[in-house]
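Weekly modeling sync, notes
Attendees: AB, CL, MP (scribe)

Item 1: holo prediction request
CL wants a bound-state model with zinc ion before deciding which constructs to order. AB pointed out that an apo prediction alone won't tell us much about the pocket. Agreed to run with the ligand included and paste results into these notes for async review.

Input as submitted:
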Amino acid sequence: MPIVAPSILSSDFTKLEEQIRLVEKGGAEWIHLDIMDGHFVPNLTFGSMLVSAVNKMTDLVLDTHLMIDNPDFFLEDFVKAGADFVTVHYEAVVHLNRTVNRIRELGAKAGVAINPSTPTDVLKEIVSDVDLVLVMSVNPGFGGQEFIDSAYRKLSEVKALIPKGKKVHIEVDGGVDPENASKLVNAGADVLVAGTSIFKSGDIPATVKKLKLA
Ligand code: DX5
Ligand code: ZN
């Protein structure tokens, strides 16, 4: 069964706590938090203050996805705010090994994300040093975009890169819904991020359950 990580980007912020209770009811294990800076991606969302607030609302694992330039400046803030996983973008970091080590030194799990146009080969030297690889199946910046099919192949490629016996989560993010979920799991994903398909579904717990049954 995959881990389901609802992205609160598509939730109703006027009743965030209620919406978190609903994903808990459906059996979600993680909450996905999309941090955008208006530079790395053409959109702005929220920072560590909201992560800290969510941390007070739930015991679920907090999965922070930093779509920001210079993430090194903010790693400590996010870990202090309660982030369990801190994922940075390959495309936004020059000294990726240093950044990943720093996340782990701070006491969090480290992830690396790749955009749809970035080949999986770039992960070869870093995959043994991370806890999670995030394959983007949309161009990061917005919820509700159409799924890009190359993600299936890329998930299988990432799975093949992970050394035998090493536990590295493979997460897919963007356009994930109950229709494509099982194909994504078969391709290698063990963490499904979903925003629109969960929060705009009309039945949040039932949609989380459907994704878990993928
Ligand atoms: C996109 C974000 C995603 C997004 C997913 O930049 O990283 O996490 O919220 O949203 P949906 O599921 O609506 O594509
Ligand atoms: Zn995300």
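Recorded for review: Residues 3-212 form a domain with the TIM Barrel fold (CATH 3.20.20.70).
Action items: CL to compare against the apo run; MP to circulate these notes.
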